Amino acid sequence: QTRNPPILPCLQRMTPHSYSNNINGLHCAYNDQVDGMKEFGSKNKDSLAHLLHAFFDYWAWRHDYSNQVASIRVGGCVSKSSKEWTRRVGNERHLICIEDPFEITHDLGRVVDHRSIGVLRDEFVRAAKLMREHADPFDLLFKKYVDGEDK
User: Fold this and answer.
1) What pLDDT, in 10s, does the model give residues 5-25?
2) Alpha-carbon span 65 to 115, nearest angstrom
3) Neighbours of 95 (CB within 10 A)
């Protein structure tokens, strides 16, 4: 969550936690009273197109893949070094790090390899450029990906 004002609540940061349970040895706790959050995000007046462009722009050019971990739990980023995800361990590469919001030692992006991260980042760049350069980019945005076609 990087928008200001925010669009979505960070359920794990909201207190009190209305849901709390141990599942397979993991403590899961968050605010699950979503009926009271219907108006959350209403102060943000950005259009859907602007929000989508900001998402692609962030992942194309602004996210620091070498040093940052996307964390739903905190509603932002934490450092790779704080999680000790700075080097490859076996097949775990940590090229794009996404913290599991409950099993916080688990990197959901750990299995992404060099080819996949290249494709993913190329698609973020392509989408950000399309959103910036075309008044109606959606047909182009959702065009089927063909490896090497746009290079």
Assistant:
1) 999 998 988 888 899 999 888
2) 15
3) 20
